[in-house]
Amino acid sequence: MKKADVFVISALVAICIAFLFLFYGTNEGTYAEIYINNQKQDTVFLNKNIKKTYESENGGKNTVVVKNKKVYVNFANCKDGVCIKSGKKHKKGEIIVCAPHRFLVEVH
Amino acid sequence: MSFFKTLNNKSGNSRKNSNNNNNNNNNKSSKQKIYNLTFYAIFVCLSVALSFLESLVPLDFIAPGVKIGLANLSTVFLIRQDKFLGAVGVNATRILLSALLFSGFSSLPFSVCGAILSFLVMFLMQKLKIFSGAGISAAGGFMHNLGQIIVSLLFVPVSVLKYFPFLGLAGIFTGTVIGILTDICIKRLKK
Ligand SMILES: [Zn+2]
Question: Which of A28, B98, B135, B185 could form a disulfide with A8 if both were Cys (CB 3.0 to 4.6 A apart)?
Answer without folding.
Answer: B135
